[in-house]
Amino acid sequence: xxxxETDTALVTGASSGIGEATVRALCAKGVxxxxxxxxxxxxxxxxxxxxxxxxxxxxxxxxxxxxxxxxHDIDILINNAGLGRAMGSLATADVRDIERTxxxxxxxxxxxxxxxxxxxxxRKRGHIVNMSSTxxxxxxxxxxxxxxxxxxxxxxxxxxxELSGSGVRVSEINPGRVSTEFYEVAIDDEERRAxxxxxxxxxxxxxxxxxSIIHMVDAPWHVNISQLEIVPQEQIYGGYHxxxxx
Length: 246
Ligand code: NDP
Fold this sequence. Notes:
The protein is an alpha/beta fold and 246 residues long. It is 41% helix and 16% strand. 42% of the residues are buried. Bound molecules: NADPH dihydro-nicotinamide-adenine-dinucleotide phosphate (NDP). The site of NADPH dihydro-nicotinamide-adenine-dinucleotide phosphate has 29 residues, from helix 1 and helix 6.
């Protein structure tokens, strides 16, 4: 399956940041894209720009998710919707934020995968790309978020084994810091948020990550890019410390 032979790609979290950039990049390649998120007004604007199909979806809505394959043969699923809450403060975390983070980043991602897999396996073609993070594999001060992305990391690796020989590819992408609305959602306190956003380095643009996703889905069919880590040139691992060349 090449990108040109792709029937439809579904991108979750398409209303901003990495998801929106990925919709734009896929549409530019001529792929039919279903752009899913809760903020339908934003998706309508994106649709007018790119020709994507706007789809109002809360990925935590199990019924809506399980109905997804009925209308389209989805060949590519970009499981991108996600968030971080209780960043750096598990001891004071609101219990609802724990549920929301794990449910959005892990459980919903698994349900979405479950919804599209039977069709992909039947057609012997498909590609699941799961949005992970450097936080999945490198230690940082974000235990809850890191645990959610570590679950995605293990899910990707085991799913790839499970689907061996089925014609379905599985990829994980692990970005470092990207300039998106992530921290607007993650941290309510303005001062803490500003501190978290003030890296002092040139961080990734969502288009940088989208280009890597295109590289994964456009790879020759015998190739499975299993994991791709993309970080700002100046970012180092661990504890959100950043080292710039002076
Ligand atoms: P944004 O906040 O800009 O985008 C998050 C997207 O997820 C939005 O489109 C939002 O749409 C969607 N979303 C959140 N919850 C739901 C839900 N319940 N149902 C449907 N859609 C939902 O952040 P990013 O672009 O940065 O985040 C995208 C992914 O990248 C996330 O998985 C994040 O963990 C990951 N990531 C981000 C990094 C960064 O530094 N920014 C680094 C590494 C990974 P809406 O609110 O309209 O529903």
